[in-house]
Specification:
The structure is a homotetramer of 266-residue chains. By secondary structure, chain A is an alpha+beta fold. Chain A is built from five helices and 14 strands. Helix content of chain A is 18%, strand content 37%. The longest helix of chain A is centred in the middle third of the chain and has 14 residues. Chains in contact: A-B, A-C, B-D, C-D. Chains A and C meet through β5 of A and β5 of C. β3 of chain C pairs antiparallel with β3 of chain D. Chains A, B, C, D: This is Transglutaminase family protein. Chains A, B, C, D: InterPro entries: Bac_transglu_N, Papain-like_cys_pep_sf, Transglutaminase-like. Chains A, B, C, D: It comes from Fibrivirga algicola.
Chain lengths: 266, 266, 266, 266
């Protein structure tokens, strides 16, 4: 499906503030960027670099006063995500070198905690190693963790969420990743857009590496949904914050849209 | 200056033909991509990857029949290119590791030929090592090599051009790079757009690494000109062909435009 | 100084166990590998790859039964580590792109916790931003955290250590990194060898990026000490474990040596 | 087989001369470095970096006077190289992104010359696309190009060798690569050691990417021979010179050895 997705951020900047942003999707597996726009008002100098994972990162200094960023992309996406019930676990010695990284614990995915590996063992009891385990984890989170805004903050980890039993897409994702890694299933976080997400917002989900492929899992959804746009991926939210600010500024509004009709004016 | 630059390629494809393209500029030093569009007709699956130099490369199979590619970008560019007469040579032992690569001879820049180093020595006789040498080379080419379409082909090297004394922007660039490298000045090829180029076309120029900075040199121009958009860079044209085809297809038309007014419809 | 450093690990392997190791130092800033040896008994197939940070990682399957790994390197090291009291903070907008990564919180360095930033603020009250802050943090840890084996484990974070007030070199390092990052000083973990460390063991310390340079800080020491061999570096211990095992095996003995006389037989 | 391979270079240095060297093999596919030594006399500061292909490169300034470099490695190698008659060509659209690079023409492998592609077409007439073509090229070179020292120099390309019909291992390799690439078979140069090479010297051969695997081809040999140690690989000799000097120095002697008995003293 051809999607037009974008967001607009409006700020009051109390003092010139360095910003790092990840708001520009790249063409890649399952998505092709037909067009995109990245605007600021007022216009300021921006530099862009590619991080360790290949994500595009923008650096700028938000000027004191009102500041606005608006990005939009028209993207060809896949209508369906791949699923493969029964796909076997890729055992550690067969994992590609660059995938091993996603087995390690990270800031928000402390897969080394005993409480995580114990819960994972309970969830996948009797389930065949591989895809079905990751899916069991996804389904368990969807059933057992309540979705509610305002119940977590930027320091909340997957272990916290397991204890709190409540969170948002970021927390669902961190928990899913933590549980997968504790079973030696490589897992990573994706942030981006999802068509028909309700309520509309920037979204997060996870991918698990099984039988040679990165499969998509979204614990906030009750069934597999395609039409996703990846903006960035990494080990967890520490790697893929859409915005990191280094000074005093306030985001007043953030609007996000994903439309199936690309005729929206760019 | 805010430029709208683009190109449209029209093909007759005799049989399904794999293509590799480099037609998507990236934000980077001196340029910020405000918006861009990359369209094909008919639409076909495309993948994109980043090459060794960080350039974006698109891969697709051109389908049999009529095929059209159209790309356009609105880009904030610098009105002036930096110049620094008198800037000293960075001696080899002080070059950054990743710059050494651009001292080596390459397909179209055989800087190891004696004829190249001899000519370079003549051109820079009495000139201070560094920026002034690169500028002397640029000026010498501009004066001594005649610009004429159809006088060279895809196998022509900088050494050929030194002998022929005629060529196009690609040949001017290869010769400039060859001469610089023979003096231990790292040099690389850039392909992209230049505002007010006459006649308008995709363009090529070179950069030389001097005193810690990559400076722009364009041997086709009589004076320094800014408002350039880099699409790709590499050792020479082998690295940065805007299109590489692996099969039978014919390009019927190629239109290129660079406008200073970004209100052109995307 | 020319150091001969090495270690020997002896295992009882209950079942064939995949291992990832980081036991091969590379030549780099401040160290030159004159010779090295990497032996296993029994000999098994090994592959080696370079991780995201450039560290060399070895992968193998430890065979059931007795297994032994022995590595040794003769390395030219610097007798002194650089120090620069008064060196100013590099402000965020001036940090190189690839250094920004080391400002982010990580598994064992939760620099985003309020308790960390509050403690950091107290420690550096009245201290000039930059080198002196990092040194104040190092000295504070050396004074206020007790060094004791067996008081922490593989899940212990810098925040835990701040609370516990006790730990080993790994914990001292994680706390130092956490505190530095909370002040927008990029910091990373180094594991390796230190001459005359008492008791001798594999060691860990941190580096902070100040005024364009990565400076060495070791909170376990009372004064600056050189003659270090870096084996690996990364965001924290999750990135630079010298050994990660994926199955049942027991390390029986681990011997580590660092000698100033390279005449030790290799 | 466990090989001990090394070389010793002796120089008269007329003036302090920057050197770039590639004399340290890395563990990788088919080879495991058990131990290695890298010595200089007199000892000078050296830095090491990894180039675009992952090769280790050493930089130093050779001091005026007598200078000596001696490197040696004990390496576990494969006794046999893989062969796969009948393996089909990997068509361009199925090549991995990072392999495409090795289809492009390069300094010493002008695969874009018509004389090259015409000769390639003659050599492989009637041969099935893929492994058998690369092997036909290798055999043709072995039969039709005469091996003789002193018949080529550092500017000689594969096209020159096709014309001259004489050369050394480097020239055989460049010609093989040129011919393969002209048939859309990715090919790259390897430099290293070969056990029982006669006369003993640093050696060069090529690899061709066929059916998903890089196969080894050595046009200087009449039959497949294993027990090779790769020191570096790249597009051609411009990428993988074991030594590049930037100033006046003379190599007096170069000794190379490859022994099957690792008991040689390191």
């Amino acid at each position: 499906m051809k999607l037009t997705a974008g967001c607009e951020l409006q700020f009051d900047v109390q003092d010139d503030t360095p910003l790092m942003l990840m708001l520009r999707p790249r063409s890649g597996a399952g998505q092709w960027i037909i067009s995109e726009t990245y605007e600021m008002e007022p216009e300021v100098p921006v530099t862009e670099f590619t991080d360790l994972y290949g994500n595009l990162c923008q650096r700028l200094i938000a000027p004191t006063g009102k500041f606005r960023i608006r990005t939009q992309a028209v993207v060809q996406t896949d209508d369906l995500i791949a699923t493969d019930p029964g796909a076997p676990l890729t055992i550690v010695q067969d994992l590609p070198d660059d995938v091993l990284h996603f087995l390690l614990p990270s800031r928000y995915c402390p897969s080394d905690y005993l409480v995580i590996s114990n819960e994972a063992a309970r969830i996948v009891a009797g389930v065949a190693p591989g895809y079905d385990q990751a899916e069991a984890i996804r389904a368990w989170i969807n059933t057992n963790i309540r979705y509610e805004y305002g119940t977590s903050d930027s320091t909340t980890s997957g272990a916290d969420t397991l204890y709190n039993k409540v969170g948002v897409c970021r927390d669902f994702t961190h928990l899913g990743i933590s549980l997968c890694r504790s079973l030696s299933i490589p897992a990573r976080m994706v942030v981006g857009y999802l068509h028909e997400l309700k309520p509309m917002d920037l979204h997060a989900w996870f991918e698990a590496y099984i039988n040679g492929i990165w499969y998509t899992f979204d614990a906030t959804q009750t069934e597999p949904k395609g039409n996703r746009i990846t903006v960035a991926y990494g080990r967890d939210a520490a790697d893929v914050a859409f915005m990191t600010q280094f000074g005093p500024m306030t985001m007043n509004t953030m609007e996000v849209w994903v439309d199936a009709d690309e005729t929206v004016a760019t």
